[in-house]
TrEMBL record:
Single strand-specific metallo-endoribonuclease involved in late-stage 70S ribosome quality control and in maturation of the 3' terminus of the 16S rRNA. The gene is ybeY. One of its GO terms (cellular component) is cytoplasm. Its cofactor is Zn(2+). Its EC number is 3.1.-.-. It is found in: Cytoplasm. GO terms for biological process: rRNA processing. Gene3D superfamilies: Metalloproteases ('zincins'), catalytic domain. Binds 1 zinc ion. It comes from Thermoanaerobaculum aquaticum. Pfam families: YbeY (PF02130). This is Endoribonuclease YbeY. Keywords: Cytoplasm, Endonuclease, Hydrolase, Metal-binding, Nuclease, Ribosome biogenesis, rRNA processing, Zinc.
Length: 143
């Protein structure tokens, strides 16, 4: 099943060594556990300014946030299914990692799991705890 899933990671600035591969692996595992069988997820790692622009445009909130998810599930002309996009603010993630006492890499993985679940249709604001439970399981298994 993993051969049918792909996570494309794009860094707005310089990539952190080794983190891209880790994010791809965590992203694929999260997508699998969320029930995705095929497709590609695009991940953008950006600064707070870019995240603020995205948050303002799509959610009408004029401030940066840690992660945004944009489900798509569109079949592209190539036949590939574009599952959606996840944007993660590196600056916000770094602040959250420091506050939590863990690495930036771990925080990025946590945010990617959260975003991937949203792309797959989970919604912690609407469900009865299913997303939170799966997220906790994935944190334990993958991190």
């Amino acid at each position: 099943m993993a051969g049918k899933l792909k996570v494309a990671v794009r860094w707005q600035g310089r990539a952190l060594p080794g983190v891209t591969q880790r994010l791809r692996a965590v992203g694929i595992a999260a997508l699998q556990r969320a029930g995705a069988e095929e497709g590609e997820l695009s991940v953008l790692l950006c600064d707070d300014r870019t995240m603020e622009l995205l948050n303002r445009h799509f959610r009408h909130k004029p401030k940066p946030t840690d992660v945004l998810s944009f489900p798509a599930h569109d079949r592209l002309p190539t036949g590939t299914v574009h599952l959606g996009d996840v944007a993660i603010s590196l600056e916000t993630a770094a602040r959250q990692a420091e506050a939590a006492g863990h690495s930036l890499e771990r925080e990025l993985c946590l945010l990617l799991i959260h975003g991937a679940l949203h792309v797959c249709g989970f919604d912690h604001e609407q469900d009865q705890g299913e997303m939170e439970a799966l997220e906790a399981q994935l944190r334990e298994e993958l991190l």
